[in-house]
Every structure is written in structure tokens, then in C-alpha cells.
Amino acid sequence: MPNTKSAERRMRNSARKQLRNHGVKSRLHTLEKNYAAYVAAGKKSDAATALKSLSSALDKAAKRGVIHASNASRKKSRLTVRLNSIKAA
């Protein structure tokens, strides 16, 4: 339990931010799962569209501080490599 008013306020803010972060991360996981399904099925055009929306969502999450910018960049890079490997095959 918080002992001071400021600690009480921080606790409320933390809970609110945690809820927002959880929603954003959940959406990222869903988009990533959809992308992986398209890649596994070999649907290049659908996977490219999914990658575009996933990249945008990763950038927005990084901008808002939900995930680190390097994490978003690394994920986008690895996902793009996966898409390009499908096109080569």
C-alpha cells in the first residue's frame, strides 16, 4: 500500500499505463501471428500486406514507449528477411 499521496498517484498511473501497454502488446502478438500464418502458407501478397501493418504497429508502439525502438527495428528486420526468403523460394 502506498504511504504518500504521490505514491498513490504513481500507483494509479502505473495501473493505467500497464493496461494500455498490455493492449498494445496483445495487438502486436496477434498481428505477428497472422503474419506468421501467411508466411507458413506461402501467401506472399497477404504476408506483405500483413508486414506493412505490423511494421506500422511496431513503430507506433516504439514511439509511445511500449517497446524499445531497437526491439521494433530488430523485429521488422527479421520479419522482412522471412518475407524475402519466401519470395526467393
Fold blueprint:
Elements: H1 5-41, H2 44-63, H3 69-88
Helix pairs in contact: 1-2, 2-3
Describe the structure.
The protein is mainly alpha-helical. It has a single domain (5-88), classed as Ribosomal protein S20 (Methane Monooxygenase Hydroxylase, Chain G, domain 1), CATH 1.20.58.110. The protein is elongated. 87% of the residues lie in helices and 0% in strands. The model has no long low-confidence stretch (mean pLDDT 94).
Basic shape: elongated
* Gyration radius over CA: 17 Å
CATH architecture: Up-down Bundle
Sheet with most strands: none
| Record field, number of beta strands | 0
CATH topology: Methane Monooxygenase Hydroxylase, Chain G, domain 1
Q: How many DSSP helices?
A: 3
> Average pLDDT, to the nearest integer?
94
What is the assigned CATH homologous superfamily? Ribosomal protein S20
Contiguous low-pLDDT stretches (5 residues minimum) are none
Total discrete domains: 1
Secondary-structure element series:
HHH
As a percent range, the share of strand residues is under 5%
Helicity, as a percent range:
over 70%
